[in-house]
Design brief:
elongated; 73 residues; mainly alpha
Amino acid sequence: MGATALIFIVVFFILIAIPCLGVGWLGYKLITRLGRYPSKTPAIQLGIMLKLIIVEVVSLTLILLLFKILVSE
């Protein structure tokens, strides 16, 4: 039972860590672009927003897929 819980924790950690790294990378790009072109703030934010939405939808889908696999019906 303990090994199963450890595997679940590792898989769940990976499913959380990967989107967090992606969001951090997008945030870094956002801050860098805003520092270079402060007058283009709305356009830069809109460009990053679509990528953020994609990262969030994919991460939520993977987490829901994990729980769907683990639920026995």
